[in-house]
Design a protein that fits this description.
The protein is built from 16 helices and 19 strands. The chain has a seven-stranded mixed β-sheet. Strands 15-14-13-16-17-19-18 form a seven-stranded mixed β-sheet. Helix 1 packs across helix 2 and helix 2 packs across helix 3. The longest helix is centred in the N-terminal third of the chain and has 31 residues. The radius of gyration is 29 Å and the shape is globular. The N terminus is likely disordered. Belongs to the methyltransferase superfamily. Its main location: membrane. It comes from Escallonia herrerae.
């Protein structure tokens, strides 16, 4: 009752149709599995899915956080490659975004970083045709054209000896706008008035440096010059400088102090840098004064020095120098040289610019996103001897504990122990870990957590220079680094660094996790994934990364290395060390974007 009885033939037909559908679905699933796993179509579909996640990561913070979590856990096989038009991407100096900002005091040319949630998580590719850079010292004179195929400077400045294209190379004759006959002859001219030889001068700042030939040729005099220029219409002048193996980074003297401590440089140089030193009540001259060591030299070549139709500007420049009691050494053609007084400034005095001394409470070392001041930093604001002529000559100053080290508790003992520790570590790196330090393969080096600059000091005999970075939330030791005759900058590693991609051969970082944590609360302010993607951006293909930290942190880092396409090995610390740490050594794989024809 209640059941419908169908003929057996019809019942079997329905059962067979159902069986056919099940079988078809099963074999279809198998076929789809093979397509997805073993064919290019599967790779393409998977890649498009990851690309969708990547694209959404730039617009949807939740998706980005999910991607970071996957990478941190080791469950995301590889971070995607950025598109080809990102080969020279600098997140904090992005012309497309910054061009919308105020032009006042060149604010739009300064650092303006996007929030991490607003940036796609991807790896910057090298340009097509990129090859391992020419090694130092040959690189001072020529680099591969295809590594940065931008002809604008060569076309516009070739007649001034900046650079020219020759076959597969860019050639650098060593000239500049104010020294078309070459930096060597220009330096010889300066030697008539400045004690360039003999070790009295060691650290120099070159403002608006072009392709940094001045700094490159001063190296022969044992003077290390940190050159800077903004990212501007000349495209990649700082990128050219770093490709040549000359210390440089991207910066703009605009509305903020430059990221250096007070009284760092023995020599400040401007060759047609076009900085309006006397504008805004001489604010820019005052910033140069903050950076220049007492007894140091200021050299300005080009406008407005005895320049046609700039009589007023030239008169104002001389008036500012007089107001600060700078000694006029010489006016030679379009070049002027002043010497900064050794002691306290002669301010207060009557001057037309309203310049006066800063308050006693002013911290002249504060320079991270710190607005320019219209007052002169007191030399008495920093205790001890740091004037040119009162500190030891180079190279003795490298190993002599400077006055600024004594501001730290047991500073001299800590300084001496730091020298010994890094001598042991670097010897271990070279002999036991077989790192390329000391070979021509390593020229541009960065220490991301430099403290007193001990790592850089231990590399003195190597054909390398070191950018010593002192994190802004760590003890302010960058002044000690400059007193030793080394160079560096302040930086916050929760933001990208002001350099082009592929500019460092070797990156060293001790205590990497401390760079992303708040020293007070111990909470993370950013994440290791973004930091390691930034290291990858700065590092050249085939470049080396060395990371020291606790075994737990090194384990985390090791998981991320796979996602950023590095090959990594983990090593025990040097035998003499009592620290609980391991050492990760990684190499950046030289990968290329797929050809557009594929």
């Amino acid at each position: 009752m209640g059941h419908l009885n169908l003929p057996s033939s019809k019942r079997n037909a329905r059962q067979w149709r159902l069986l056919d559908l099940v079988s078809a679905a099963f074999f279809g699933g198998v076929l789809l599995f093979f397509v997805l796993v073993f064919t290019p179509l599967g790779d393409s579909l998977a890649a498009s899915g990851r690309h969708a996640l990547l694209r959404s990561s730039a617009s949807d913070p939740r998706q980005r956080h999910r991607l970071v979590e996957l990478v941190e856990s080791g469950r995301h096989p590889a971070i995607e490659r950025c598109p080809a038009d990102a080969v020279d991407h600098m997140p904090c100096e992005d012309p497309r975004r910054n061009s919308q900002l105020s032009r006042e005091m060149n604010f739009y040319r300064e650092r303006h970083c996007p929030l991490p949630d607003q940036t796609p998580l991807c790896l910057i590719p090298a340009p097509e045709g990129y090859r391992v850079p020419v090694q130092w010292p040959e690189s001072l004179h020529k680099i591969w054209h295809d590594n940065m195929p931008y002809n604008k400077i060569a076309d516009r400045k070739g007649h001034q000896g900046w650079m020219k294209k020759e076959g597969p190379y860019f050639i650098f004759p060593g000239g500049g706008t104010m020294f078309p006959d070459g930096a060597v002859q220009y330096i010889e001219k300066l030697k008539q008035y400045i004690p360039i030889a003999g070790g009295n001068l060691r650290t120099a700042l070159d403002m608006g440096c072009g392709v940094a030939s001045f700094g490159g040729y001063l190296l022969a005099e044992d003077i290390i010059t940190l050159s800077f220029a903004p990212r501007d219409s000349h495209k990649s002048q700082i990128q050219f400088a770093l490709e040549r193996g000359v210390p440089a980074f991207v910066a703009m003297l605009g509305t903020r102090r430059l990221a250096f401590p007070a009284f760092s440089f023995d020599l400040v140089h401007c060759s047609r840098c076009l900085i309006p030193f006397t504008a805004y009540n001489a604010t820019y001259f005052i910033e140069v004064d903050r950076l220049l060591r007492p007894g140091g030299y200021l050299v300005i070549s080009g406008p407005p020095v005895q320049w046609p139709k700039q009589d007023r500007e030239w008169a104002d420049l001389q008036a500012v120098a007089r107001a600060l009691c700078y000694e006029l050494i010489v006016v030679d053609g379009n070049t002027v040289i002043w010497k900064k007084p050794n002691g306290d400034s002669c301010l207060p005095n009557q001057n037309e610019f309203g310049i006066d001394l800063c308050e006693e409470s002013d911290d002249s070392n504060s320079a991270w996103y710190f607005k320019l001041k219209k007052c002169v930093s007191r030399t008495s604001s920093i205790k001890g001897d740091y004037a040119v002529g009162t500190i030891p000559k180079w190279p003795q100053r490298l190993t002599t504990a400077p006055s600024r080290a004594t501001l730290m508790k047991n500073g001299v003992d800590v300084f001496d122990a730091d020298i010994r520790r890094w001598a042991r570590r670097v010897a271990y790196y070279k002999k036991s870990l077989n790192l390329k330090l000391g070979t021509p393969a390593v020229r541009n080096v960065m220490d991301m957590n430099a403290f007193f600059g001990g790592f850089a000091a231990a590399l003195l005999s190597d054909p390398a220079w070191v950018m010593n970075v002192v994190p802004v939330r760590k003890p302010s030791t960058l002044g000690v680094i400059y007193d030793r005759g080394l160079i560096g900058v302040y930086h916050d590693w929760c933001e990208p660094f002001s350099t082009y991609p592929r500019t460092y051969d070797f990156v060293h970082v001790a205590a990497i996790e401390s760079l992303i944590k708040d020293p007070g609360s111990g909470k993370s302010r950013c994440n290791l994934v973004d930091l390691m993607v930034e290291i990858d951006r700065m590092l050249r293909p085939d470049g080396t990364v060395v990371i020291r930290d606790s075994p737990e942190v090194i384990e985390k880092v090791d998981r991320i290395t796979r996602a950023v396409r590095w090959t990594a090995t983990i090593h025990e610390k040097e035998p003499e060390s009592n620290a609980r740490e391991k050492i990760l050594v990684a190499t950046k794989i030289f990968w290329k974007l797929p050809s557009a024809s594929h």
